[in-house]
Amino acid sequence: MPPVPAPRCCPPLVTAALSEADAEVMSAMFKALADPVRLRLLSRVASHPSGEACVCDIADVGVSQPTVSHHLKKLREAGLLTSDRRGTWVYYRLAPGVLASLGAFLTETDQAGAEESSRAGRAV
Asked: Burial level of 36, CB count in 10 A (0-12/13-18/19+)?
């Protein structure tokens, strides 16, 4: 059974001002993604053929194993990854719906995009 998408945190950025709580949630996600090692780890998990990756498969990012564990913890705390332990290994996967949620937050709505395209077309 496919994972249930996570509810979208916040309205698209262009449609309404963020509440303090929504700003905290999104800020934590973007702060976690601002680190190059974390971004590489997230990319390795997201692009893994099975949809999940053992820490043993993604840890070669040029930092020590304890540092990898720290970064993975930060990604989990920010709501970007989920994990479960199987024996001695921990497996990571993207949190359900997190990429769609981030994308929707940063994407102009269809209406706003259509209006912008219309204005750009008239200016030419």
From this structure: exposed
Give pLDDT tens digits for 96-115.
Answer: 989 888 888 888 766 544 55
Residue 91 contacts residue 54 (beta carbons within 8 Å):
yes
Q: Of 66, 68, 98, nearest to 81 (Cα)? A: 98
* Burial track 41-60 (b if 16+ CB lie within 10 A, e otherwise): bbebbbebeeebbebeebbe
Nearest to 74 by CA among 108, 122, 37: 37
- What pTM was computed for the model? 0.76
